Amino acid sequence: MPESFFILSKDYLELASDEIIALSKMYDRFSKVKIISNLVIIQSKTSWNKIAKRASFVKVSGQILRKMSGLFLNEDNLEVLKNAKTFVCRIINLSSKQFNIPELESSMGDMISKFSHAKVELEDPDITIYLIFTDNENFFGFSKRIKEKTRPKKIKKYPHELDWKLTRVIINLIGLKEGETVCDPFCGTGTTLLEAESMGIHAIGLDFDEKMYEISKENLKVNGYKSKVFKSDFQELSKLSGKFDGIVTDLPYGRASKASEKPEEILKKFFSIMPRRKRMAIMYKKELDRNLKLNGLKKYEIYRHKSLTRTILIK
Ligand SMILES: C[S@@+](CC[C@H](N)C(=O)[O-])C[C@H]1O[C@@H](n2cnc3c(N)ncnc32)[C@H](O)[C@@H]1O
Asked: I need a surface site. Which of 170, 199, 233, 283 has the fewest CB within 10 A?
């Protein structure tokens, strides 16, 4: 079974590794996962770039060719360079040892050049060969050049809007597949709708504020996206439940955006009407759930500044 590696940014490490796990299990429920600090190794029939394309916090990813005990390479390992014209070697040191990385990368490049017709090219090579050091094992892997993900355009912004990476990560955490539908009942500027549609997920948005409803529509239109937006209260959600597979939303905080009533009351009402069987990823200001019983649900806390820590709740 092929193995892939993902080096994650350390910004939100728990979210980032849970995202990779959720994506790999979504595509292949028999995937096996191993986590070594910010390195995630996945054994799965899904290719690394299918997972990497959707993930929010992956810095580098590729396929593992083999585990190595030393720094030993032979011709069999270099099959991947067969049709490549150019390559580069990259060392990723996650171990506690110190290496002279530029020197090692350059001597590895020289060594590989002897077995292969491909030439070293530092910028935009066909293949990148990776050597990843950890304290217990080393991995030898590669990635091919992949087209940069095109980001959806956002022509209208608003201070309360959510950062696209956090939005994307929570969509992925509930394992929504391409072709499924997400609903954001507090859609604001449409961040969830844009991220979802850019990953091939259909989306429905609700916002009670005329201005937000118009902004969302314009942001979708400029991308040629087809998600639906309704100017309505979030409670309309109960009438739509046959039309979506999961809910992803960021509830009002009581600052910057209009709210129909106190954010704490909105959160309480939201829990009372949310469809029980749907997957759900919601975000809200941490202290708003103090009177709610939320046993057994996965929670993350994201510190923003001294008066705002967000809770992400996954069901
Ligand atoms: C925190 S903002 C959402 C921001 C959004 N995630 C984005 O990236 O733009 C909360 C949104 O909830 C909307 N809202 C407040 N009360 C509502 C209600 N009762 N029904 C529907 N939307 C409501 C506000 O207009 C605001 O756009």
From this structure: 233
Ligand 1 pocket test: pick from 257, 260, 282 the residue with the most ligand atoms within 8 Å of its Cβ. 257
CA contacts within 13 A on the Cβ side of 96: 2
Assign residue 173 the CATH number of its domain.
3.40.50.150
180 CA from centroid of ligand 1 (Å): 23
Q: Where are any strands of DSSP class E within 189-271? A: 202-206, 228-230, 246-250
Residues 236, 126, single domain; the answer is no
If asked whether residues 87 and 211 sit together in one domain, one would say no
Ligand 1 pocket: which of 155, 157, 160, 206 to mutate (most atoms within 8 A of CB): 160
Using DSSP bridges, classify how beta strands 181-184 and 246-250 pair: parallel, antiparallel or unpaired: parallel
Cβ–ligand 1 contact at 248 (below 6 Å): no
Ligand 1 nearest atom to the CA of residue 209, by list position: 25
Count of the separate structural domains present in the chain: 2
- Please work out whether the CB of residue 258 comes within 6 Å of at least one atom of ligand 1: yes
Query: Minimal CA–CA distance to 191: which of 163, 151, 217, 218?
Result: 163
Same domain, 129 and 177: no
Both 134 and 171 in one domain: the answer is: no
Domain membership flag for residue 154: no
**pTM, full prediction:** 0.93
Q: Residue for token digits 């217990």?
A: 136
Instruction: Show the domain range for 275.
Output: 164-314
Which residue puts its alpha carbon closest to atom 22 of ligand 1?
207
- Nearest residue CA, atom 20 of ligand 1? 233
How far does residue 228's CA lie from ligand 1's centre (Å)? 16
Please report whether residue 150 resides in a domain. Answer: no
pLDDT digits (tens, 9 = 90+) for 181-215: 999 999 999 999 999 999 999 999 999 999 999 99
- How far from each other are the two terminal CA atoms of the chain, in whole angstroms? 30
Domain identity same for 204 and 81: no
